[in-house]
């Protein structure tokens, strides 16, 4: 699967790495970056055989999170479904990383605290406020 396979909708155009649809909604871009970042997350999880949570988190922050945050002031989603689509990638990563070291399910907010990560919606809001 290459990038062109992800962008086959004739009603959207990709400019500077951001998908812009005819109705100017963020749905197509959210789906696009979620798929792309999920591939990177799976690559990270399968590439590092170490169970070192700090190493995996640093790799996530370096390689996957920038995909989810690039140009967020342009495409910042307002619909809950789009916000959840983007956030689902980080939820998946935190669940997979901490599942190997613990036996029970940990709530998402607690996983973020353990891994020293922030909610992506909060990071986008902070980024938008710093631009203004």
From TrEMBL:
This is Alkylated DNA repair protein AlkB homologue 8 N-terminal domain-containing protein. It comes from the Eukaryota.
